[in-house]
Design brief:
The complex is a heterodimer. By secondary structure, chain A is mainly alpha-helical. Chain A contains 23 helices and no strands. Chain A is globular. Chain B has a single domain, classed as CBS-domain. Classes of the chains: A mainly alpha, B alpha/beta.
């Protein structure tokens, strides 16, 4: 009992430090993991072997493999090429430009990291808007919101999904059959809403369309050969993701193999490539797994289970909708990765208490994904577009975000809740 | 060799109460790249650079792009003009903190400071911290070269 209390205090204190941003999350989680393992060793409930075993290498491998592929694709100028191509295809018509840039950002962020996608596409978006002489705000905000939305659709789209997929044993195809249909609907609603919110800005006829045709997409692709090779490997990886449950291989094996093939095919400067991998996220994840493992070993999860068994009487569909909103509101205030990690033991506890938790995993994914749209700090992609907008004549302020991101978050969560309830009664 | 022998003593400066419009006129009239910003006692408050004014026309988003070889026409950016409101802003809004040297500073030290901080012009002050001159990298560089024996010999 006493061990459970000590471990819970360390876990909650670490979460508080991460949420309040008093200490960097990677540092906090490493210190937390060290404290929990140390106390586990002293009191004999958690060994080093158990701590290592509690790290979910499937999650880490999948993230690492995909990060390597992005690291190879990033310097080729492929993302820049896509944005320039979208700019030309729009013929300078604002609504078309919004839809094209939004679609590209969504499609890319369904398979690759949202933040990298936005970091690379946003500067070209500003360039296109400056050349056209239009305000870049509608396009930048739409890119962030739609990339967050797109990321929910697939197993590899967003770190919370990778975590949920791994913890709940969900395959790539499970996401395509459960999450993708809802995301498509939510995405269309978001796009319509953004078009409505920005109707004034999108009405203006750009004064300088001819200059847009002077942008040369071919020249913006700096290393065509490497880009082609990495894209072929990525396509192969996506096909294997579809088949991974049939072939009995893990998504992490697929991602790591793809990274290995891409590395040997393109033979980059490996030091430079490895620098682009987000080690802080990987270390943060590994340390959090060790902490959650300590929680389990100290018997805290059992206490959660008995506390949660009182919730069994609540209708499960209502419980799922409540979970979407709780996760979404929390994800609006703090990063959605620690939220997801904190929610996973709760959902597992409910499962152990006898509740059917299969639908709840989806509620968690929707809440964590769509909730991040509500505020600037809700997702890293939002922070990125706000930061780059500070280099333009019209920086994005929190007031602007509250008038655009917040309505989109509320609407998408409402739509997701309705679809979730419908799907629940049809399929469960 | 100290810097006061080589600095431009006739330095064009601007009072810190001035506007961007007044700065623009001074830049244009004197064909200079930097204006030291001073108070009534000639104390250095900061500097304003030509590029700070031009950032009103070309925001620095372009620095986020790895290159812009594929951009052949800057379109609306070419014809953009700062608004009347921006032009009437006080100069201190765009002012940068100034790095300065005392007039007794050695030439090579001054040159190293400029290289280290990637500066092209440096305001010079006296002991009372009053602005007394300005040097450019070219002023210092040519002054150093002029001391080389071979150069002095071939000149004579």
């Amino acid at each position: 009992m006493i061990t459970g209390i000590i471990v819970s205090i360390i876990f909650l204190a670490s979460l508080w430090l991460i949420f309040s941003e008093k200490l960097n999350r990677t540092i906090t989680s490493m210190v937390g993991a060290f404290l929990i393992v140390g106390i586990g060793l002293l009191m004999g409930f958690y060994s080093e072997e158990e701590a290592i075993a509690s790290i979910d290498f499937n999650t880490l491998g999948l993230l690492f493999g995909m990060m390597l592929l992005v690291a190879l694709l990033e310097p080729t100028g492929f993302f820049q090429f896509l944005a320039v191509w979208a700019g030309r295809l729009s013929k300078g018509q604002p609504v078309r430009l919004l839809i094209l840039l939004g679609t590209i950002t969504t499609l890319v962020s369904m398979f690759l990291d949202n933040v990298t996608t936005v970091v690379l596409i946003a500067p070209v978006t500003i360039l296109i808007c400056e050349i056209l002489g239009v305000n870049p705000i509608p396009y930048l905000i739409s890119e962030a919101l739609l990339s967050n939305t797109g990321g929910v659709a697939t197993l590899v789209g967003d770190p919370p999904n990778v975590l949920i997929g791994s913890e709940a044993g969900l395959s790539f195809n499970d996401f395509l059959t459960h999450s993708l249909p809802i995301v498509i609907f939510v995405w269309l609603v978001s796009l319509w809403l953004l078009r409505y919110i920005f109707r004034q800005e999108l009405k203006a006829v750009p004064p300088n369309v001819d200059a847009l045709y002077e942008l040369n997409p071919a020249e913006s692709l700096e290393d065509r050969k490497t880009a082609q090779k990495v894209l072929i490997v990525l396509a192969g990886a996506i096909i294997l993701f579809f088949l991974h449950s049939v072939l009995h291989i893990s998504p992490s094996f697929v991602a790591l193999s793809a990274a290995a093939v891409a590395l040997v095919w393109t033979r980059p400067d490996i030091k430079e490539t490895l620098k682009r991998v987000e080690w802080s996220i990987l270390i943060f994840f590994a340390a959090l797994f060790v902490m959650v493992g300590g929680l389990e070993a100290s018997g805290v999860l059992e206490s959660i289970v008995s506390a949660l068994s009182t919730f069994k009487s609540i209708p499960p569909a209502l419980f799922g909708v409540a979970l979407i909103w709780i996760t979404a509101i929390l994800s609006g205030v703090v990063d959605n990765v620690p939220i997801t990690i904190a929610m996973i033991p709760v959902i597992k506890g409910l499962g152990a208490a006898g509740m059917n938790i299969d639908p709840l995993w989806w509620a968690l994914a929707f809440g964590a994904g769509f909730g991040g749209n509500g505020t600037i700090i809700g997702s890293t992609a939002n922070i990125v577009v706000v930061t780059v907008s500070e280099r333009t004549r019209t920086p994005i302020t929190s007031t602007i975000w509250n008038k655009t991101g917040l309505p989109v978050m509320v609407t998408t969560c409402t739509v997701a809740s309705l679809l979730y309830t419908l799907a629940y009664y049809f399929f469960y | 060799m100290i810097i006061q022998d080589w600095m431009k003593q006739n330095v064009v400066s601007i009072p810190y109460t001035a506007t961007i419009r007044e700065a623009a006129i001074l830049f244009h009239k004197n064909h200079v790249g930097v204006l030291p910003v001073v108070d009534d006692q000639k104390h250095l408050k900061g500097i304003i650079r030509l590029q700070d004014l031009l950032s009103l026309e070309l925001p620095d988003f372009y620095k986020l792009l790895p290159d812009f070889d594929f951009v052949h026409d800057f379109g609306a950016v070419e014809t953009h003009q700062p608004s009347a409101q921006e032009i009437e802003m006080p100069v201190i809004k765009l002012m940068q903190p100034a790095l300065f040297l005392e007039q007794t500073c050695g030439l090579l030290r001054a040159y190293a400071v400029m290289l280290k901080h990637d500066l092209y012009d440096l305001p010079i002050v006296n002991e009372a911290k009053e602005l007394v001159g300005i040097v450019s990298r070219v002023d210092i560089g040519t002054a150093i070269i002029s001391t080389w024996n071979t150069i002095t010999e071939s000149n004579s």
